[in-house]
Amino acid sequence: MARAIWSGSISFGLLNVPVRMYSAVARRNIALREIRAADSARIKHRRVAEGTDEEVPYDEIIKAYELTPGQYVPLTKEEMEALAPERTRAIEVQDFVGLDEIDPMYFDSPYYLGPGAGAEKAYALLAKAMKASGKVAIAHFVLRNKEHLAALRSDGNVLTLTTMRFADEVVPVDELEILPEKAQKPAKREQEMAEQLIDSLSTHFDPTAYRDEYREQLLALIERKAEGKEIVAAEAEAPQATTAPDLMAALEASIAAVKDKKPAPKTRKKAPPKAKKAKRPARAKAKSN
Question: Which fold has domain 11-25+84-169?
């Protein structure tokens, strides 16, 4: 049974709904240790002063902001604690917006919210009302001494909370030199073929259809090495960009490949025609004298 990592309440208007927060992500990272190749001795990292081999005790380490290379503004632990956000237990809703108005780039980490003790009815009311409205709640709250922006959503039964990035944390695309000043306009036929390829690959999203292939291959490699099997590393080829003259050929080949991969539609076998029943001869009517 998963344990709650935070408890507080959702607050908006005069409504206050106690909730418990649960992690919605199970990290599947493979933990690797650093060892010395010669004798498998574990490698430990020490906190040492730059330019010396002197280890610095943890209680002597403070935070600092680097103004210029080598010039720091030190910040004491007391100063940092004084600036820490107030440790409230409230998820304070500020606005309700449409989900399609939020760029996915703003989303960060997801969590589940469950009802606090005795708050089952208020929780169910909020979940139903939010689902009916089709809106997402934008809120502020404090988790692990850090203020977060968050989006609350509902499927009608369960509330979820996803932490969000603030606006100044997302780099505006116009600050990046992504597109050349004179971008080549695709030909109409090329765009139609590209749209056809997208349409042929379109389906309903199924998260179970996608796997972490690197993690699976790494686990398989670890198992083979643990069994003492010899490992031969294969050289990976760098992908080559499709050049402009080959775009049409690449699009046509891609569409054909998708068509070949798709299973043929199942045809129902026609049932054999039923034998017609022979008509019974009509009964002769009795003659009346």
Answer: Ku70; Chain: A; Domain 2 (2.40.290)
The 10 Å Cβ neighbour count of residue 184 is 7
For residues 176, 177, 178, 183, the Cα torsion angle rounded to the nearest 10 degrees is 140
- What is d(CA 287, CA 137) in angstroms, rounded to the nearest whole number? 90
- Rounded to the nearest 5°, which phi and psi values hold at 98? -80, 140
Give me 231's structure tokens. 């490992």
Per-residue pLDDT of the chain (289 residues; tens, 9 = 90+): 779 999 999 998 888 999 999 999 888 888 889 999 999 999 988 899 988 889 999 889 999 999 999 899 999 888 888 887 777 789 999 999 999 999 999 999 999 999 999 999 999 999 999 999 999 999 999 988 889 999 999 999 999 999 999 999 999 888 888 777 777 788 888 888 899 998 988 999 898 998 988 888 889 888 888 888 877 776 666 666 555 557 788 888 888 888 777 665 555 545 555 555 545 444 444 444 3
For residues 121 and 82, the answer to whether their CB atoms sit within 8 Å is: no
